[in-house]
Amino acid sequence: MTSAALDTVGSTFNNLLSRTRRAPLVDWREIPQPVQLVNITSKPIAPGSTAIKYVATGITPQAEQILSQLPVPIHMVAFTGFGRSGKSFTATKIRTHLTGNEDHKFSSAPGNIPCTHGIDMMVFDNPRGPGTVVFLDCEGGANHNQTALPFVIGLAARLSTQLYAFERGCFTTGGLDTVMQVINMGHATSDEEVDMTRQLILVENMTINGDIPDRRLLEDLLSEEDGDEQTNRVRRLIRERFDTSFAKLPFNMKGSAEMHEEAVANLAESLGDSLTPFVVGGVPVDGSVVVQLINELLTQIRDGGNRFNMVTATEALVANMAAEAANSVWTDFIAKVRKQGNHPVQITGRKHLRTMLREVEGAANTCINELEGFTQRLVPHEPAAVARSTWDRNYRNFEQDVRAAHQRKADELARYTQWGDRINRLVSEIVAQVVEAIRQFIRFARFSTSLILMSNYYFWRQSFNLVTGIAQGVISGATS
Hints:
This protein is α/β, with parallel strands linked by helices. It has helices at residues 3-17, 61-67, 87-99, 151-159, 173-185, 214-222, 229-241, 257-273, 287-302, 310-340, 353-375, 381-384, 386-479; strands spanning 35-36, 38-44, 52-59, 74-81, 119-125, 132-138, 162-168, 199-205, 243-249, 279-280, 283-284.
């Protein structure tokens, strides 16, 4: 997949899964570094035995707190190889060259006693682009107090996008054996496609081959013209499994310090120009997924296992990412449905069910397209199918809830309608009776008024006739 395609997928991952991430209590830049990546404890090989073995119990709280905050993309670089070969010192120098500061340093010191136990981790912002860079400084092999190998190399190889393997003085087939531990730990000796880094840089520190070109040294190291069957098998597997390059570092001492700084600068520039996002299942992921992957791998060896199954670990992570993406998209779907007023708790029963389901289906189609646009990029496809099955189950249950809620509200409305009809009939009867009473009252009032008017008419008529008679009598008496 091209860099542009990875950026697109990484953006999709951020849009989907970062919605469910919680804001950190403490910014990762404020946590002292480096930190130990994995908790390693010792316990007797058998009850009552004085011999001990070292067991990785899980990711440390400090490492989890830092990694869980890292967004897409993450560029992970592992420094492995023989003990006392300058891995920690060189990793610190490379970081200093890339960042321009010496804020954090891996522990390193001369002598026979190693400084690194397990894997130390240091994180810094990518100075060449977006995202962060994670350096994993691994415990060296062939130390007099070797503890965590080969688990350390296997874990670092799975987590890294670029793997540096160090050896002192002259890179030999002994150094290739260290790389072979990576292949063995990852079940990569078969023909299966294993989700593991392909970028391998063999570093010859404190070199005695300063005058020999790097290309020639690499060709001689991986040549199958000489060597026994087992050695040539190792060389062949390395060529098949890795895109291998070679680098030399001179002694860092008076008289050659400037040459050493220049070699480290070249190594840092090469690293900065070739940083690759960390990918799980074909998709660039954030730090929370890295934490899940670490826990998944450690679970495989916690109870006595001595090899990682990279295939099953990837499948588990792909299934987790698909399920998380489905849950994230589902949350957005519920928010859209709530805005429509079609959530079961919002249903009033007044909107037609078919209208509601059509609106819900429209919101679902938009979310499904977003979900499938992400999960179709996940590899392998079988565990990624959990996203669609999760969605289908949730949507089926949601649709049933909508139908049930609408039916309940419709029944309630029907009951309310029956009571409403009864009340309406009662009110109508009362109103009709009141109106009839008013009508009768008006009729009575009209009759009363007519009666009064008629009585007044006869009274005034008789009075007028009486007065008229009296007047006529008076007039008649006067004339006679």
